[in-house]
Design a protein that fits this description.
Blueprint lengths: L6 H10 L5 H7 L4 H7 L3 H39 L2 H13 L5 H6 L10 H13 L1
Helix pairs in contact: 4-5, 5-7
Length: 131
């Protein structure tokens, strides 16, 4: 039978995922750091902590996926209209955008695929070579 975390443990985890650091959260709720460290050795507490971490990562990946096309469009705009250092940085950022995995590409209905012509790619490489 799975043992649940206590109300105090849940409150501490809520604090941690609302931007409060471990020591401040523990002190605020009159939990000693020794007790908090003991909790870190309990599988139930660690499981809940890990679940919340994975959930936060998933939420950030969803947010990034939602805004990645906009960011790419802005970088292209900077590349087309920029000068000097701004142009160079925009080109570097475009080249460092992570590619979708095969699974993401197969499941994607995204029509906003960023394609760079050979001419544009040559311009980017020329600008980078100047540095």
């Amino acid at each position: 039978m799975k043992k649940n975390i206590t109300l105090k443990q849940k409150i501490i985890l809520d604090e941690l995922f609302n931007g409060v650091d471990e020591q401040t959260a523990a002190a605020k709720h009159k939990i000693t750091m020794q007790t908090y460290r003991r909790w870190l050795g309990q599988s139930e507490f660690i499981s809940e902590l890990q679940y919340r971490i994975e959930s936060a990562h998933r939420q950030s990946r969803i947010l990034l996926a939602r805004y990645r096309p906009l960011a790419a469009a802005k970088l292209i705009e900077l590349m087309n209209n920029g000068e000097g250092e701004t142009l160079r940085k925009a080109c570097l950022d475009i080249l460092s955008l992570p590619e979708k995995t095969n699974r993401e590409q197969n499941n994607s209905n995204d029509n906003a695929v960023m394609k760079i012509s050979n001419k544009k790619a040559s311009q980017i490489l020329r600008i980078l070579a100047q540095d």
